[in-house]
Amino acid sequence: MSSNTGPTDYEELSPAERYRASAERRAEAATYLGAFVRTLDFGLDDFQRQSCRSLQEGRGVLVAAPTGAGKTIVGEFAIYLALQRGLKAFYTTPIKALSNQKFTELSEKYGADKVGLLTGDTSINGDAPVVVMTTEVLRNMLYADSATLDDLGYVVMDEVHYLADRFRGAVWEEVIIHLPSEVQVVSLSATVSNAEEFGAWLDTVRGDTDIIVSEHRPVPLWQHVMVGRQIMDLFAGETTFDEIAPPVDEEDTRPSSVKDSAKGRGFEVNPDLLTVAQSESQQSFRSRPGPGGRGQRGRRGNDRPGREERGVRPASRPQVIASLDRMDLLPAITFIFSRAGCDAAVAQCVRSGLWLTTEKEQRIIAERVDEAGFEIPPDDLDVLGFWTWRDGLLRGFAAHHAGMLPTFKEVVEKLFADGLVKAVFATETLALGVNMPARSVVLEKLDKFNGEAHVDITAGEYTQLTGRAGRRGIDVEGHAVVLWQPGTDPTAVAGLASRRTYPLNSSFRPTYNMSINLLAQFGRARAREILESSFAQFQADRSVVGLAKQVRSREESLAGFAKAMTCHLGDFTEYARLRRELSDAENLTSRTKSRARKSLSDDSLARLLPGDVVDVPGGRAPGPAIVLSSDHTSREPRPAVLTLDNQLRRIGTDDLEGPIAPVTRIRIPKSFNAKVPKSRRDLASSARNALRENRPPAPGNNRNNDFGLATALPNQEKRIADLRRALRAHPCHGCNEREDHARWSERWWKLRRETDGLVRQIQGRTNTIAKTFDRVCDVLSSYGYLEPAGDGRLAISPDGQRLRRIYGEKDLLISQSLRLGAFEDLDAAEIAALASVLVYQAKREDRGLRPRMPSVSLETSVDIVIREWSALEDVEEEKKLPLTGEPELGLVWPVYKWARGRHLQDVLTGTDLAAGDFVRWVKQVVDLLDQLAKIPGLDPRLARLCAEAISLIRRGVVAYSSVL
Fold first, then answer.
1. How far apart are CA 707 and CA 569, in angstroms?
2. Residue among 192, 280, 254 nearest 263 (CA)
């Protein structure tokens, strides 16, 4: 592996080294690389030159370098080589926005006739010698054996570290494994701590691959903390990005907190920041309630907090931008881990009266923005928030997040790149690869909500976010600014800024579509071999070596523990076994009681009917509630209820203390609409009357309260009593050193369990991917997608051939829905709505009551899909496979209305969808419909309706091309 820490200083070379370098330059001038360099207006860094040389000599390359270091120049050289040699080059990216941006750049450089673009919903000049595409498009080409692959010489995989992504990362490995051997692969990655491991795998599956790693940032990055309105250095002295990260000693076994401390890293945290933190901590201590319930100052008779007690007051967003502007640190990207926060930040800056643009800049911005909005239907401009967006841009402010219309995001990106927009408030998706470097990057907080809980950002995420600071060729230095929040620990921030621990871990697993395509192309035996060559299996195999070493070490410790627990009165191992069995039996009894309670609680929830009034004992809204809809089919029932204070929510076992039974019952009118406040108030009033009158519930709804414990605990109490008697009768029970022996015994059993666990890990990591593939094949066989063909081989059935052309996270469910007739008896608009059920993924908090479907036929189709999903989930659980995601109904009405020609305002009213989200999901619906329409052998009527559905929903803001 080659590692570069920075460009070589020519003056430091010896005369002989200078002569050799001069001779190399002369020789290089006559090569493709020399000709390519002459097209550039800047020189190449060492790592760029070395990577390009490897490509020119016919080897693949893995280039790992910080954001902004210029690694994409290696990809551009691959494109140059392809054009010079009469071959094709594909440039793949993880996201459409990056594909669009790269397409625009390459079109400007090589001409529109030589560059094409292929994404899920866009196809431009797909037969060009240079094609930019999302990685999924290339994967689909490989499985379809597309003629577009003819004469392919180079594939550039930008942001290849994306293969660690839990949902889409496997696609990168599929492409790397299946590309023809003659294709040279250029893998461009952020700096990862296991580049050598990843490169070794590439070398195994792709052949000769050079690993070039550069830790050097061409633009120095300075780290700061903004305390109030004052920007302070994070580190004492002149300490830049390159200087705070010496190589980590692999043999250093000290705790990470010690290794990452300022002293351990060879740098020092700014003592002024430590003083601020210490002062804040002391003020917090003084403010704690004392015995009298007040802080210490309050006990002295002054309970009004003084200025010094309030600690550091964080600067407002306009104040932060104004401070950066005053210090000439704009343009800046402020990362806020919330879409609403980004939009609010722009609104706050506009309200503050802050202007960052000149009159000339405002005229240019106005022209570009109005041009972008020209093709958008006028009626949609208000719905899209066009005028608010335009007002912010004119002042130099903009948001950037996935909820925005793609066109709006691209305008922001171009205005920012041209220096016209000075402050962008963005979510972390901007750090995925969109080329938007800034002079400064601001992090409002160092934690984010990951969908389940608030978690601290990792060192890798910190490096990726702050890597946007410092524009090569424009800025002399970049600046990363963390805003001081109450409780900020400067040493912890320094640890984040200094660590380079960003390991690349595979997320690869065989899917139904992947498996059936492998079987069709290679047969089962060869398919297993291919899967065993994945990076996931490569990592698993390497980890086994380390696990085996741990097992050997622990076996030695176990022998020592066994000697220490020897007892002169008898076999202490047997006595320890009795103690352990007694403890296990007592724990089992406790768990059985708990499970019995939960089981009966689940059962009682499943039996609740609409109109039942229950008394919820706990949770977020305890008290009486009316059941609005049952939940009979879920594994963990969560019926929807209306509380007496008119709140809609769902209740589950976490809200209960045991089984729940109705206390009364009311009738829910047919006209009841949960979305109408008056309907909710009237129903709550009926429930209050029923409770006041003590109306009895429906017969048969009473529950006993013994939790079924009499039947749940057969013979367990007797076993516990027998074990206690055996323990007292054992000779070792009378040993004076019994408890000492017992402590050694506990250590022995704990270490034994851990060692056995390591042994199971070793067994489980051997051929793990192939074993998963076998289980996937079992599922496909049980559904009839694979058929026995003699000699132990499996053949692809006609239904299996259809599955080969369906790509997506719900591939098998989509195929089953087709197979069972869910798409029959629907018109084009209904087909579009049903397709949304199979692609949409609602946020957990957005999932509500099941809506009424627009038509009876669509209701029937949705029932088929949901029933089939439930059955498939049971099969997957039995086979220990990842579960297919639940069909989501939240996009049905918006897509249906849109397909019927309704106005965007009408479509979005009553939903929590942002316009950008709506466009993004509709494009995914278009992608699925396009896949279905092109399935060989599909009923011609259904294929025609899918094409018609695409034309119905690809209109207005959806049709407006995101490629400018």
1. 45
2. 254
> Which residues does 367 contact at the CB level (< 8 Å), separation at least 6?
none
The phi and psi torsions of 188 (rounded to 5 degrees) equal -110, 125
Measured from the Cβ of residue 581, the count of other Cβ atoms closer than 10 Å reads: 15
Cα–Cα distances (Å) from 257 to 225, 253, 489, 494, in that order, read: 21, 11, 13, 11
Strands 664-665, 454-456: pairing is unpaired
Looking at residue 469, what DSSP letter applies?
Answer: B
How far is Cα 409 from Cα 97, in angstroms, rounded to an integer? 9
The pLDDT of residue 714 is: 57
Residues 209, 627: Cα–Cα separation, whole Å: 63
Which amino acid is present at 886? Answer: E
Indicate the residue type of 954.
R
**pLDDT value, residue 269:** 85
Question: Whose CA is closest to 346, among 421, 410, 249?
Answer: 421
Q: What is the DSSP annotation of 363-382? A: HHHHHHHHHHHTTS-HHHHH
Q: How far apart are CA 177 and CA 517, in angstroms?
A: 13
**Residue 586, CB-side half-sphere exposure with 13 Å CA sphere:** 9
Is residue 484 exposed (0-12), middle (13-18) or buried (19+ Cβ within 10 Å)? Answer: buried
- Determine the Cα–Cα distance for residues 538 and 533; give it in Å rounded to an integer: 7
pLDDT (0 to 100) of residue 723: 73
- Look at the block and give the residue holding tokens 């430091």: 12
Alpha-carbon Rg of the chain, whole angstroms? 32
* Residue keyed to tokens 């709140």: 647
DSSP per position, 723-735: HHHHHHHSGGGG-
The token pair at 90 is: 């594909």
- Backbone φ and ψ of 627, nearest 5°: -75, 125
- Beta strand pairing call for 478-483 and 440-443: parallel
pLDDT for the residue numbered 887: 92
Q: Would you state the pLDDT for residue 569?
A: 78
The Cβ of residue 601 has, within 10 Å, a number of other Cβ atoms equal to: 23
Global confidence as pTM: 0.69
pLDDT beneath 50, residues of the chain: 5-8, 10, 246-265, 290-309, 701-709, 712, 845, 962-964
Q: What is the pLDDT of residue 452?
A: 61
Distance from CA of residue 836 to its chain's centroid? 21
CA quadruple 169, 173, 178, 179: dihedral sign:
positive
CA–CA separation, 44 and 182 (whole Å): 27
Strand partners, 211: 62
Cα separation of 946 and 948, whole Å? 5
- CA–CA gap between residue 702 and residue 607 (Å, rounded): 11
DSSP at 697 = P
Nearest 10 degrees: Cα torsion 395, 397, 402, 404? -10
Nearest Cα neighbor of 422 from 397, 456, 445 is 397
Residue 299 amino acid letter? R
For 298-323, write each residue's pLDDT tens digit.
Answer: 333 334 434 444 567 888 999 999 99
Q: Tell me how far apart the alpha carbons of residues 123 and 106 are, in angstroms, rounded to a whole number.
A: 16
Question: For 438, which DSSP code?
Answer: B
Contact between 611 and 668 (Cβ < 8 Å): yes
Instruction: Specify the pLDDT at position 159.
Output: 84
CB atoms within 10 A of CB 140: 21
What gap in Å lies between CA 404 and CA 370, rounded to an integer?
Answer: 17
